[in-house]
């Protein structure tokens, strides 16, 4: 029988697991070592089990822990930035420290958090599950990518121990050439982490092409995977350019070959072209997977087909390809020729259109649906609001004349935080809540989840909306002090207070997650009533294989009506919204409990 | 001369110049006052997009809230029938935004063309940017720092280049901005009809002093401008060396890196250093005297005091011999060892009393 003709029955937590899916096979659990392994060797056994795993689910979890750590680290730096801006003049750090803090905030957020965030963590975990495969195409390469990412991260963190870099995340020459040597460590880190990104992308492309379950045609591919696919294309095609750029920087520094440094006959604007030729497509590496998550959430929580499936799917690919042709819009004031500025401005508007279409389609998905306002859906709606603002301000800075005034001001800072944080991070949070029961086997508290979503929404807007106004009033970005513009102080203070609310909201998300791991109610196999393949397995998928038998796909990813209608309809079990459930800690299904 | 003394008095006044408030000073919630003849062109485009965006965002939000509320789930047994996609609807929200964005593109393009090309009769001033100050050179060779005086109602073209790293010249009130690059000339132009003082900020990150790299554009009437040009602008010819040095200390941005209160900045402090032996990073040392100051200003790389980075640019082309000696005099003043010649332009008392005029040289320092 086709696996999708019925949603997976909700498996009561302690009974009747299908063969091969018993708690002992839970992927989070390492089979217990023999009785002769004692003391430290026991820890080593578990550690080795995880460090040498080729299971995409475990690799995804390790990515998740890593990116969450870096998000926390860079987030603390961001709080420092906001606190420093609280008053005119020195608040609590010097100019040199401030320059290092905002640089590390940008570098860690971009290269260690947001680029790997959704594809490497949620993508790794879900991709094989969603196409009904055992694993990705190259599991060993997948593990290697994770190691590369860690090595790259180590170089970047190492630079912090030597008082960091002060170039901003953009490393513009010739400044980056004459400032301290830590730039080289960071450059090497970015170079190595870039390979992690390329190899992950390659792995995903091959997996999606070759390992889909029988019946899963391209038009039945969940939209999350369409956008992961589009992202992977960009990763493979664009990332080498940043590697080459970093290599050229090193060559210039060590061998004195004039490439970017005007003192050696190089051209600093060339560096900007190289840098943005990667870093603009990289923006789509960051946002496209978020589009995918929003598609999943809008469909599942509206119990409707995602409106205009084909248009949404293909617009992801269109954005990925057009994304290669707009890098010059970062350089309208840089001295590039006005003709290229005009062309880049034009293409920038073209790329805005598919993004707009997606927003309209997502909203239309709710029409005549059954909208379930759980935490993931709240994040999805938050995304729609914030991303719309991020999008229309993108139109504003894409307009040539207007950008001359707004370029390199807080307006830009606010714009990309609306897109990256209001877009990608909101989608990431939504996706994390959505797949949390699948990843951990536990339910988080809905009440705390909704509260944190509200705090994040309020804090985010308080922090960043005011920055649009500061920017259009003329506050330049990367400014340690604003002594020439003291009238900005109250606006900065509003933004800083907002950052505290935002931090509180995010802290609540973390607490909710950790609490659920230990005290959360056991999750049913399909708590949201979703119909994509990953929900058809039991609560946490088994290790090493994902499915007891290769599934046969007979429906599209959002054919709720076809699946549920007719015979009494199996409704989704509503997770209890209260955190004080008593089952949990003592259950044999607890992840990491090897005594069963 | 009256104008000059008024001008100098204005410079000395402690009251902040330029913008002191926002929104209530003729600007709007979103934009500063329009102080150039082209600002309104940019602003019109800005407001068109702002209003269109606001309408769109409100529309999207209302649609989202209404649909989410109207179709909210009341029971888990709900299994809505799939909605048939409307090709017309999809076409409409593809084509209408396309038309809208093309309008925005052309508006942005027009506003760029209308504001970026300098008129041929513009008055040209050369601008050199370096860490962390701006130097302006008038056609007559006069050089000033961090404050440029320009005539009102006259197109002014600033031809810019950088000496070290990238900088960017941004005047919010004029809506002009352009990067300043080491290996080529770039320009901005403006025509400010109203007299006043306008803030210039650097908007391309350039290191420690980036946020202090401001300048002022002082727009004055035509007559005052000619007067300013004729008198050499900077003034101060009649100031005693130490006072002139004090003015240079702030106007040439020495204060960005060097304190006079004993604390270390990007560079060493000036307090308590005069006459001391300074140890350098390369192991050598020298006594801080007039020659030391000259060498530090003209060839700063040769005397890096231990514990500091080689950050300082050369001032060889920016400071005259008189400026160098004025800086040294100012250092002596703050260190309490100033000579009579440092602080007074009058001849020493003894010389005035003497009848042997020819034996009283007006020596430079001692």
Tell me the helix content of chain B: 25-40%
The number of helical runs of chain B is 9
Q: What is the helix/strand order of chain B?
A: HHHEEEEEEEEEEHHEEHHHH
Structural class of chain B: alpha+beta
Q: How much β-strand is present in the residues of chain B? A: 15-25%
Query: What count of domains describes the coordinates of chain B?
Result: 3
Q: How is the largest sheet of chain A built, in terms of strand order?
A: 1-2
Strands across the major sheet of chain B, in which order? 3-2-1-5-8
Instruction: Identify the most extensive interface between protein chains.
Output: A-B, 98 and 91 residues
What's the shape of chain A? globular
Structural class of chain A: mainly alpha
CATH architecture level-2 label of the largest domain in chain B: Orthogonal Bundle
First and last CA, distance of chain B: 32 Å
Percent strand of chain A: under 5%
Low-confidence runs of chain A: 1-15, 566-596
Largest sheet of chain A: 2 strands, antiparallel
């Amino acid at each position: 029988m086709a696996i999708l003709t019925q949603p997976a029955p909700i498996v009561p937590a302690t009974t009747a697991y299908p063969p091969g899916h018993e708690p002992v096979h839970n992927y989070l659990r390492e089979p217990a070592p023999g009785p002769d392994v004692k003391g430290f060797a026991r820890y080593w056994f578990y550690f080795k089990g995880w460090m040498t795993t080729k299971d995409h689910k475990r690799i995804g979890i390790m990515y998740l822990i890593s990116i969450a750590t870096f998000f926390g680290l860079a987030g603390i730096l961001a709080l420092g930035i906001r606190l420093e801006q609280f008053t005119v003049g020195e608040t609590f750090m010097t100019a040199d420290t401030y320059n290092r803090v905002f640089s590390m905030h940008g570098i860690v957020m971009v290269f260690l958090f947001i680029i790997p965030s959704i594809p490497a963590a949620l993508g790794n975990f879900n991709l094989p599950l969603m196409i009904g495969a055992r694993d990705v195409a190259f599991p060993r390469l997948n593990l290697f990518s994770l190691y590369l990412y860690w090595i790259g991260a180590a170089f970047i963190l190492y630079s912090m121990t030597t008082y960091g870099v002060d170039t901003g995340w953009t490393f513009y020459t010739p400044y980056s050439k004459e400032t301290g040597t830590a730039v080289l460590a960071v450059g090497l880190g970015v170079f190595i982490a870039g390979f992690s990104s390329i190899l992950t992308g390659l792995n995903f492309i091959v997996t999606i092409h070759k390992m889909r379950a029988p019946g899963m045609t391209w038009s039945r591919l969940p939209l999350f995977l369409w956008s992961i696919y589009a992202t992977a294309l960009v990763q493979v095609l664009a990332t080498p350019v940043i590697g080459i750029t970093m290599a050229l920087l090193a060559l210039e520094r060590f061998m004195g070959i004039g490439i970017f440094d005007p003192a050696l006959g190089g051209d600093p604007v060339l560096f900007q072209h190289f840098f943005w030729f990667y870093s603009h497509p990289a923006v789509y590496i960051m946002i496209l997977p978020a589009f995918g998550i929003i598609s999943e959430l809008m469909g599942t929580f509206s119990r409707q087909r995602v409106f205009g499936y084909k248009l949404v799917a293909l617009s992801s690919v269109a954005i990925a390809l057009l994304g290669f042709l707009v890098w010059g819009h970062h350089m309208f004031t840089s001295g590039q020729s006005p003709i290229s500025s005009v062309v880049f401005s034009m293409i920038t508007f073209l790329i805005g259109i598919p993004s707009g279409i997606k927003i309209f389609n997502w909203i239309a998905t709710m029409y005549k649906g059954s909208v379930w306002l759980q935490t993931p859906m709240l994040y999805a709606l938050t995304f729609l609001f914030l991303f719309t603002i991020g999008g229309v301000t993108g139109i504003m800075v894409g307009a040539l004349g207007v950008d001359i005034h707004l370029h390199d001001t807080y307006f830009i800072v606010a714009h990309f935080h609306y897109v990256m944080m209001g877009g990608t991070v909101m989608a990431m949070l939504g996706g994390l809540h959505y797949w949390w029961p699948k990843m951990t086997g536990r339910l988080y508290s809905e009440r705390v989840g909704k509260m944190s979503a509200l705090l994040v929404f309020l804090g985010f807007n308080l922090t960043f909306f005011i920055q649009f106004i500061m920017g259009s009033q003329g506050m330049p970005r990367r400014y340690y002090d604003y002594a020439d513009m003291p009238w900005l102080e109250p606006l900065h203070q509003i933004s800083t207070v907002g950052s505290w609310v935002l931090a509180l909201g995010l802290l609540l998300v973390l607490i909710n997650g950790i609490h659920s791991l230990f005290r959360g109610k056991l999750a049913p196999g399909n708590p949201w009533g979703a119909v994509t393949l990953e929900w058809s397995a039991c609560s946490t998928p088994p290790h090493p294989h994902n499915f007891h038998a290769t599934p046969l796909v007979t429906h599209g990813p959002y054919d709720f009506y076809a699946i549920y209608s007719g015979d009494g309809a199996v409704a989704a079990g509503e997770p209890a919204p209260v955190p004080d459930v008593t089952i949990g800690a003592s259950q044999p299904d607890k992840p990491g409990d090897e005594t069963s | 001369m009256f104008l000059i003394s008024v001008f100098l008095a204005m410079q000395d006044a402690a009251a902040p110049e330029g913008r002191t408030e926002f929104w209530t000073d003729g600007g709007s919630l979103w934009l500063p006052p329009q102080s150039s003849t082209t600002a309104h062109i940019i602003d019109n485009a800005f407001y068109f997009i702002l209003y269109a965006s606001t309408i769109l965002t409100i529309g999207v939000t209302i649609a989202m809230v209404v649909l989410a509320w109207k179709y909210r789930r009341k029971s888990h047994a709900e299994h809505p029938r799939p909605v048939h996609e409307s090709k017309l609807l999809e076409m409409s929200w593809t084509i209408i935004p396309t038309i809208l964005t093309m309008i925005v593109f052309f508006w942005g393009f027009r506003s760029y063309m209308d504001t970026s090309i300098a008129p041929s009769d513009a008055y040209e001033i050369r601008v050199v940017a370096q860490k962390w100050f701006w130097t302006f050179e008038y056609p007559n060779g006069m050089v000033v720092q961090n404050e440029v005086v320009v005539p009102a109602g006259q197109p002014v073209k600033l031809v810019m280049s950088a000496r070290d790293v990238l900088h960017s010249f941004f005047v919010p009130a004029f809506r002009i901005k352009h990067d300043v690059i080491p290996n080529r000339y770039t320009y901005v132009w403006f025509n400010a009809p109203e007299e006043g003082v306008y803030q210039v900020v650097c908007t391309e990150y350039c290191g420690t002093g980036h946020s202090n790299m401001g300048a002022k554009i002082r727009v004055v009437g035509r007559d005052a401008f000619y007067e300013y040009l004729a008198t050499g602008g900077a003034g101060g010819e009649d100031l005693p060396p130490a006072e002139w040095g004090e003015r240079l200390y702030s106007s040439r941005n020495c204060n960005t890196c060097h304190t006079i209160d004993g604390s270390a900045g990007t560079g060493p402090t000036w307090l308590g250093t005069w006459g001391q032996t300074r140890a350098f990073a390369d192991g050598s040392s020298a006594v801080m005297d007039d020659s030391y100051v000259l060498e530090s200003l003209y060839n700063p790389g040769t005397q890096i005091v231990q514990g500091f980075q080689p950050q300082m640019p050369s001032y060889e082309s920016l400071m005259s011999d008189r400026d160098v000696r004025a800086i040294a005099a100012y250092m002596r003043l703050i260190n309490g060892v100033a000579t009579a010649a440092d602080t007074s332009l009058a001849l020493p008392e003894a010389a005035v009393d003497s009848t042997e005029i020819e034996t009283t040289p007006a020596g430079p320092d001692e």
